[in-house]
Amino acid sequence: MKSSRTCHRGEQGRLQFRGEAFNAFNTPQFGRPNLLSYVGPDSLVPDGPRVGEIRSLRNAMRIFQVAPKVYF
What we know:
single chain, two-stranded antiparallel ribbon
């Protein structure tokens, strides 16, 4: 999502303010679930107790940035 506003300064100059938001409503996008479970030094169990857990997010949480830009 982004928004910008341009203000004219004289005949040739302009000032632009820009704001951008990524994941503005802070909606979680979950990563992939675990497919294997580690239970010992030599074994991966495909039906262990932690199989199917989602333990990560695919992207960052809410991010905002603002920037001015001067044209002359």
